[in-house]
Amino acid sequence: MAPSAASHHRSHSLLLLQKLLNLRDKASPLTLILDTLEQPAQPLLNEFMTRAKISKTKIIFISLSTLRKPPLADVFIRGRHKSLQQLATEIIPHVTPSPSSPNQKNLLILDTTHPLLSPPSHLPPFLQSIIPPSTTSCLLVYHTSIPPLTHHHQQKNPYSPTPLQILTHLSTSILTLHPLPHVLASKAAQDKSLPEPAFGLHESREGVLLSLRSPTSPSGVVINMELRRKSGRVVQEKFILYQPADTTPQQTPQQIKGIGALTLLTDHPAFSTTTTAEEEEMMEATFNLGLTEKQRRDREGVVLPYFDAQTDVGGGGEGGRILYDMGREDDFDEEEDEI
């Protein structure tokens, strides 16, 4: 039996994200990760590093906000209070292919990009110098909760692109992260035609920032993937990443190896729209002319009004006359009867 279109789309979308996370076939040389205070990028970075470790990819972590070296990182470079030129001087020797291992793959991670965006026009040549073609994949983390700084160059030219616009233009894939409880709460509000709730800084409330999460709330990271092909076509899909320690709907062999489980957002019970075969056939047409057996029996048993008036009485051509018996509730009007 041939797979359905929905099943093929599901398998194809999961395969694209798997290739991106596994750094296979040069899926994305530059990946931009957009996170928030409510959903940091750490779970996704751990997933990238875990898969890179399994494939024996060299992990180079550039620390601009991280204090301690991640356990899975091979090289840890502290980048605080350093210029782009100084950073490039330290990074290039680690990503340059050596004669002993010319095909060594590298994963370059920058835990935040805000200290490097002053001015933003210097970022493209810096990235070009530290990302050798075909051997290195780079992950850039951009915190959307931090307001962008207005540089002197932008004050002179208000039409110059913002740092986020520059990063979005350079990236070959963009991964936007959201907490699963927030997405489920927004979906529940949409189903009831209620305004979507606001979370975190969007609540515009003074005081301590509190998360919606609780020990009983569902865990997981919603990933909005935007993958840009070489042809210019953009592939967009939403996924849920469950960490190995999270409670997942099904225990998969991948979790035993320390790899998180991936599912489409539409596979979640709150988003699933499963239909039967009869409903799918009815959805293919704009209307349905078929009748069930019960509807056919009920239609045959209906007695039409004025049925006796359809017969020709006495052969005098009086067929079609209207027979009407007045009831007690009818109001007899002599003037209408004369007319």
TrEMBL record:
<protein>
    <recommendedName>
        <fullName>Elongator complex protein 5</fullName>
    </recommendedName>
</protein>
<dbReference type="Pfam" id="PF10483">
    <property type="entry name" value="Elong_Iki1"/>
</dbReference>
<dbReference type="GO" id="GO:0000049">
    <property type="term" value="F:tRNA binding"/>
</dbReference>
<dbReference type="GO" id="GO:0005634">
    <property type="term" value="C:nucleus"/>
</dbReference>
<dbReference type="GO" id="GO:0033588">
    <property type="term" value="C:elongator holoenzyme complex"/>
</dbReference>
<comment type="similarity">
    <text>Belongs to the ELP5 family.</text>
</comment>
<dbReference type="GO" id="GO:0002098">
    <property type="term" value="P:tRNA wobble uridine modification"/>
</dbReference>
<dbReference type="InterPro" id="IPR027417">
    <property type="entry name" value="P-loop_NTPase"/>
</dbReference>
<comment type="pathway">
    <text>tRNA modification; 5-methoxycarbonylmethyl-2-thiouridine-tRNA biosynthesis.</text>
</comment>
<keyword id="KW-0539">Nucleus</keyword>
<dbReference type="GO" id="GO:0005829">
    <property type="term" value="C:cytosol"/>
</dbReference>
<keyword id="KW-0819">tRNA processing</keyword>
<dbReference type="InterPro" id="IPR019519">
    <property type="entry name" value="Elp5"/>
</dbReference>
<keyword id="KW-0963">Cytoplasm</keyword>
